[in-house]
């Protein structure tokens, strides 16, 4: 087990700065996910931790040691990649044992370790198969086993599930987090840094999530915090599905003005606001945009443009002036809504409305409950 610390870590490729002095502290035993769009430097950061990439500035610590100058083999890490090529001519058993054979372990030791890892990953029946006789998920588990057998202090994953189909991805997510919990309980390799571009993977797997954009860290927080208190527009738009509605407009004493309509800012949102930027972005998640029946309550006047039935939920696509908004409502609630033509009044839940400063992108509505 080991803590991983990045201090002012930088990477420059030629003249291009890929990583801009990031600081990150991964606690011992923590499952940390690095998430962000393609090209934001997730892999570069992970490869620097692994020692596969030189660092251009700053410091990396694993456990008590500064590992800046240590080769990968001396860092007590194991890495699993998206393209986890197994050795095609070796059986599963041989693939698992390969690292230990290289390290000169005895036959007896290797046999014990192989059985143990196979048992943990439930791949015992596959030990005598060749890689071409495995399904994608089975091959991925063997790749995990190959990393696990080294008993590393830190596990590094780079998009390990991206090549699998959606169903398998969902079951592998649970397998990996289960495995992490069990290894932790056994005092084995327990600290994880897991890279993905997929916000669902990040939200379901991470103890904490580090959201990155263009070589910078946007926010580090638990899934719950990221969802309920995004620090800025980038995180707000990246985390959550469907995406948060973000409406540009102006704030004044009367409330928020956007797309020719005005929504008063009630006391609950007011109390949370640390600033009142004139140029603002109002944010609200589709799950928090509600149908309003009757004309008494302030609401946006929208037009229904599309309905997607998802089962017990319905995604409503509505237009507000030139903007499209999405609402997720219960199918029953939608059925019960009486509508004349396609006009539909909608209002974001005040407890779940956010105001962002359009200039800085910062969330200024975290105040009172932050
Ligand atoms: P991610 O894994 O988040 O998709 P990467 O870490 O692979 O992003 O890349 C981050 C940035 O660094 C990208 O702009 C990419 O083009 C650049 N980059 C990555 N590797 C190299 C390299 N070997 N040489 C030059 N630029 C690179
Ligand atoms: Mg990558």
Structure characterization notes:
By secondary structure, the protein is an alpha+beta fold. The protein has 2 domains: 4-228, 3-Layer(aba) Sandwich (Rossmann fold), CATH 3.40.50; 242-357, OB fold (Dihydrolipoamide Acetyltransferase, E2P). It contains 10 helices and 20 strands. Strands 6-7-8-3-9-10 form a 6-stranded mixed beta sheet, sandwiched between helices. It has a 5-stranded antiparallel beta sheet with strand order 13-12-11-14-20. The longest helix is centred in the middle third of the chain and has 20 residues, at 166-185. It is elongated, with a radius of gyration of 25 Å. It starts with a strand and ends in a 13-residue tail after the last strand. The relative contact order is 0.12. Bound molecules: adenosine-5'-diphosphate and magnesium ion (MG). The site of adenosine-5'-diphosphate (ADP) has 11 residues, from strand 2 and helix 1.
Write the layout of secondary structure elements.
Layout: E1 4-13, E2 16-26, E3 31-35, H1 42-50, E4 57-62, E5 65-66, E6 77-80, H2 92-102, H3 107-121, H4 136-148, E7 154-158, H5 166-185, E8 191-196, H6 199-205, E9 208-213, E10 216-221, H7 223-228, H8 233-238, E11 245-252, E12 255-258, E13 261-263, H9 267-272, E14 279-284, E15 289-291, E16 300-309, E17 313-320, E18 323-330, H10 331-336, E19 343-348, E20 353-357
Bound molecules: adenosine-5'-diphosphate (ADP) and magnesium ion (MG).
